[in-house]
Amino acid sequence: MDTSKKLIGVWHRIYSDFFMPSRLDEYRLILERALERDYRVCSIERFWENVKANNVEPEAKRLILRHDIDSDVSCARAMWEIEHSLGIFGSYYFRLSTIDYPLMLEIAGAGGEASYHFEEIATVAKQKGLSTKEQVYREMPYIQELFRHNLEQLRNKIGLPMRIVASHGDFVNRRLKAPNWLLLEDMSFRRDVGVELEVYDNIFMKYVTSRHADTHYPKFWQPTDPLAAINNEEPVVYLLVHPRHWRVNILVNVADDIRRVWEDIAYRLRIKNNKMI
């Protein structure tokens, strides 16, 4: 990548983190348009119940609504309030760093889903300086026990079943080519910890006809804007959103950017130290 493209990329990130106007009106518009087109907006949990019951009606249009709360819980609440005002309910997956028990209970109590956005492979890789996928597999028993502990703690504290979980994507996962969902490849381990579904499982995703995820300014959507899919009346539209892309929260974004840089430095140092031992 040449210097000019790097500078443009840096400016886009700065604008997205600190200057971009709120896009929450746009978010409301997407949901309102879906309702106007007679979509049933539902959580992953609700759609999964239909899958298990073999009750996915091909003629019924569905918008599956998922939120990954990587940061900025205040914007997650704002999005939840928009949905609540429209009488619709989606799925919200919280990292350990973004857990908000009152909000999670509100979501679940109203008919939505609140569960765990897990990242134990990335966590252990950063802690131990793992530099290969093979090292990840060697550490898998420890990683799985950490996941078990974290999930049990969350269930005990909030009283929600959390049978469906969502893998978080971290820079370490991308470098290792080892996504966090690898820790749930073992079906016996899944059964043992009471996890029915990881949101990327093919048994679920095979029903999706149009998938859309939000991303940074200026593109906003990948691969395409979900409004086009809704206007075209795609049968099952899957919408993944992250609060950070919808409203600027300067303090949260600064803290998150600093943490990300520090984690990268610390991770590289641990790998270097491991090679010297």
Topology:
Elements: H1 3-18, H2 24-36, E1 40-42, H3 44-52, E2 62-69, H4 73-86, E3 91-94, H5 101-110, E4 113-118, H6 120-128, H7 133-138, H8 140-158, E5 164-167, H9 171-176, H10 187-193, E6 197-198, H11 202-205, E7 210-214, E8 221-222, H12 226-231, E9 236-241, H13 250-276
Parallel strand pairs: 1-2, 2-3, 2-9, 3-4, 4-5, 5-6, 7-9
Antiparallel strand pairs: 7-8
Helix pairs in contact: 2-4, 6-13
In short:
The chain is of the alpha/beta class.
Structural class: alpha/beta
**What string gives the helices and strands in order?**
HHEHEHEHEHHHEHHEHEEHEH
**Got a strand count?**
9
First and last CA, distance: 35 Å
Task: Please give the radius of gyration in angstroms.
Answer: 19 Å
Name the features.
277 residues; alpha/beta; TIM Barrel
Q: Care to describe what's here?
A:
The chain is of the alpha/beta class. It has one domain (17-276): TIM Barrel (Alpha-Beta Barrel), CATH 3.20.20. It contains 13 helices and nine strands. It has helices at 3-18, 24-36, 44-52, 73-86, 101-110, 120-128, 133-138, 140-158, 171-176, 187-193, 202-205, 226-231, 250-276, and strands at 40-42, 62-69, 91-94, 113-118, 164-167, 197-198, 210-214, 221-222, 236-241. Strands 1, 2, 3, 4, 5, 6, 7, 8 and 9 form a nine-stranded mixed β-sheet that branches. Helix 2 (24-36) packs parallel to helix 4 and helix 6 packs across helix 13 (250-276). The longest helix is centred in the last third of the chain and has 27 residues, at 250-276. The chain starts with a helix and ends with a helix.
